[in-house]
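Issue: ligand-bound run for iron/sulfur cluster - logging full I/O for the record.

Environment: standard queue, default settings, no custom constraints.

Inputs:
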Amino acid sequence: MLTLATPTTAVYGPVQSWRFGRSLGIDPIGAVSTCSFNCVYCQLGEIQVSSCDRRMFVPTAQICQELQSLPLCSHGLPSASAIDTLTLSGSGEPTLAQNLGEILTMAKAIISKPIGVLTNGSLLTDPTVREELAIADWVAVKMDAISADSFRRINRPQPTLKLQELWTGLLQFRQQYSGHLAIQTMLLTNWNDRDRAEYISRMQALRPDEIQLNTPTRPQPLTHQLEARGNHLPTTYSYPTRQLKRVKVQELKAFSDRLERELGIPMRYPFQTAGADN
Ligand code: SF4
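Outputs:
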């Protein structure tokens, strides 16, 4: 079975995800976590560099070399049979990588599996980012907040970022993107009726292909942990963590059922198939 676990490589995993299946990760950011947000629940721990500036982090040639070094399958091709998808994510916000479009094009040429990007959507106001992101087969955009106040409290964005502008960028992206668009929403507490209604109205305007509702299901590292980029789920933690607020699975299910009814799109949430409680 294909397993790459070296924490210093840009290609890592594969990791098992309730949202994407078995996913091979590509980290275009590298060892120092860098993001335009510093979400209170971030599994990377406290973000080390807070920035909205695009730049080169990991050279495309390095990622290309790592993908080409994957174990070969019986047909002499990179062993992608054990994975469902490739995911650009990793140590921060992948759209900060100036070579995002280059990486997507290169990876698609090497491995014939769908490739997607997990993004916080903060750079979707930039037409170049929208154009590069549109190369991906699927894109999952974070949307945790309805109000500017909850945006500041939960996502702790760079001060220049405005929720309304991000929303406008996301709508523009939806108009030009023909791939699969998922919205990811992390619930730390139950929303009130007004926030739920506002969320539904926004989703009706956006028309995503699916919504993934989440809640923190594992402790958050207090300091930066590169291994957390790989959905690492130890039974015991060798570093300090804290338990985050979360909502019960029954409550996620109830909101999910309502969204599915009112929006008519597929919904996902943790423990959906197992029917387990949290
Ligand atoms: S957007 Fe993602 S990487 Fe950035 S702080 Fe939030 S959870 Fe962490």
